[in-house]
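Methods — Computational structure assignment.
A single polypeptide chain was analysed. Its primary sequence is given first, followed by the predicted tertiary structure written as structure tokens.
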Amino acid sequence: MKLVISVVLIIFGVFAAALTALLWDYIYYPLIASTAEESAIAYLKASFPEEVAIDDVTYSKPFGNDEGEYFITVHPTAKPEIKLSMNVSQDFNVDEKNFKKSKWRYDTILEYVPLINEMSPGLSSYAVNMFIPADLLSSYPAETKYGEIRKLHENVTEEYLFMSVLIDRDFSEQRTLEYG
């Protein structure tokens, strides 16, 4: 009987050890996410002029990849509706190119806000996407305003403004009064 219990315990122990080794990245790295947050905050203090608050930190490691990364979403404390994103590798290095794109998108949104308010006062559902060639992405530091880059390279950069407006084609004042 002792032999059976020993064999069962050994099999269970080997299975538990194998499962722990396989899932180690999915257990350990989310537990130390605060270190990724600290790396992100240090980077942001050096390269972003405004105070920010962290909204979310998630760890992702696609199965088969050697390393995972933290995806961090932050917002300027003065403008919580605008989100910035950044990636931090599992060895806690910030992906600068990803952050530059996010920061320059933020700069562009700030430039477009007066135009959006003029075209559609009160509209809060909009987004700006942009294309920045890789050589420009690596040529300028994150502190550079996107407007300056656009002025110097206006033939190679592109911005796309998306505005979302909900239209009720069946709207009638009488129907609204009747049904609320």
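Note: The mean pLDDT is 83.
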